[in-house]
Amino acid sequence: MCFPGMVVSLTHLLATRREATRDEIRAALTGNICRCTGYERIVDATLLALAET
To answer: Which stretches of the chain are DSSP H helices?
Structure first.
């Protein structure tokens, strides 16, 4: 159930902070508890999304 929260959190981050750093992305995810990942691929994908826009 962590994925919907991550999507909402990162959608807000992408809409409000177009030059977010790796640390800012990780901070945006702090309220989401996830046992299945270390967030690295999610952070990498978010950085990629920021670079493509």
So the answer is: 2-16, 22-28, 40-52
